[in-house]
């Protein structure tokens, strides 16, 4: 039986099982010794570390880079393509769970779920007080979705069920989504000026890096809530801190940050008007299981020189 040696960064044990008995996983290194450099024929990642041309050049026999996740901003897909190495990812299976989490964060920030939880456990909670922790109405509010791809469309569907008005900004208007979901395209500045909630559901690309900074926060309503389910660098972290501490916006809920994680003493972590979760967008049992399967299927196909079930075009 042929054996395959691959490089993986702290892979989940279940993924290692799925890869099969003929796959040996080496711990991550970007400075391999001669044997490792020669033996490695595949790379499995899940968001970090970075896979770029110089790294791939250190492993001249790599045939496949398989990413456990849909976002491939940490992989230089073009550099891999130039070296004849296909990159696989896991699209589709995580759209609904990521949209669910977007709504979870939206609702948590709007209705003080986290501060309410803390208060309900504290000695201060001695009797029901109708004047505390008054949140923002979700029903009837305007949600501006930035990124009307698969995940954005599932967010729109959920928001409609909450009686929200949904407007969106995308690189190109999405006529099919408008028709199917009753959402309206708007310019970015209009989304920022008119939305009660702004949800980031776009990939991280050179166009979206730093998309939301001081100028954008200045356009937003002081009652607005920002949700970031995209990638940390879509938002300027310092500008977010300024916006939350000066009342430029009311609150934010973020599943991703820049850097990720934030340093443990980062001032954002002390803010009550920030809800933060540790990159849980796709973290539901069925979704994560399917992601593991797709990662293993892409890897196996690449190792055998077959077309990948899910290849990233680049
Ligand atoms: C993705 O699929 O890109 C998610 O961020 C999980 O890594």
UniProtKB/TrEMBL annotation:
Phosphoprotein as UniProt keyword: no
CDD domains with a match to the protein in the record: GDH
GO CC aspect terms: cytosol
EC number of this enzyme: 1.1.1.79, 1.1.1.81
Positions of the D-isomer specific 2-hydroxyacid dehydrogenase NAD-binding domain: 103-281
Domain of life: Bacteria
Any GO MF annotation of the entry: glyoxylate reductase (NADPH) activity
Keywords: Oxidoreductase, Pyruvate
Family membership noted in the UniProt record: Belongs to the D-isomer specific 2-hydroxyacid dehydrogenase family. GhrB subfamily.
PANTHER family, A to Z: 2-HYDROXYACID DEHYDROGENASE-RELATED (PTHR10996), GLYOXYLATE REDUCTASE 1 (PTHR10996:SF257)
Protein name per the record: Glyoxylate/hydroxypyruvate reductase B
Native source species: Maioricimonas rarisocia
Record gene name: ghrB
